[in-house]
Write a structure and sequence with these properties.
Helix content is about 10%, strand content about 35%. With about 200 residues, the protein is mainly beta. The protein has a single domain (about 10-30, about 55-195), classed as q2cbj1_9rhob like domain (Jelly Rolls), CATH 2.60.120. Strands 1, 2, 5, 6, 7, 8, 11, 15 and 18 form a nine-stranded antiparallel β-sheet that branches.
Amino acid sequence: MDPAVEVAVIDGALDPATCRALIDNADIDRWLSCTAEINRAANGPHTLPPRRVAEAAPCRLVGADERPRFAAIDDPVLALRIFYRLAKILPATREHAELAGLKPLLRCVRYRRGEGTEAHCDPARETADGQRSQLSVLVFLNENFGGGAIEFPSIGRIIEPRVGRAIVFPHAALHRDHTVAHGRKFVLEAEVFYNPNWQPYAR
């Protein structure tokens, strides 16, 4: 990602069949509040999920009394696939930390008719070994709904939904989800992590 470009868009980050399967699987799972923290181990019993460490402007839902709902997706292969699709636009370093990739615990978020979000910033997350997220990743899983675009008001940019389209942006970038006019909107959310403590291999 060019440091001068705060928001990057990559089409085809996921193929339509994968997007459809993620929606189908999430629809039979238990939907959780976006304020929920996932306490179970991710990708094995020895890996704790990243924890939220900062939330300057909490995500508030428009059009309903609760937060958007999400289903947890623990899939290291999927996380790696998305990372490979995005790698060419991700900075190798940020704030003196080196690129570490995506974590396997992702979130499928559902917005129903009349729902959107107020302008907000995303929280950073941190792993037990000190890796910290700095960039947000959002992938549209469907487009058969009305409305639901993502707006970045500080730069005057609106990004329309398209199946498999990924948006990458800094956590501090103010953004909002336009209200869904009809149908249901599904997006996959993840974070890009950076590690300030990489150790060189011993020779």
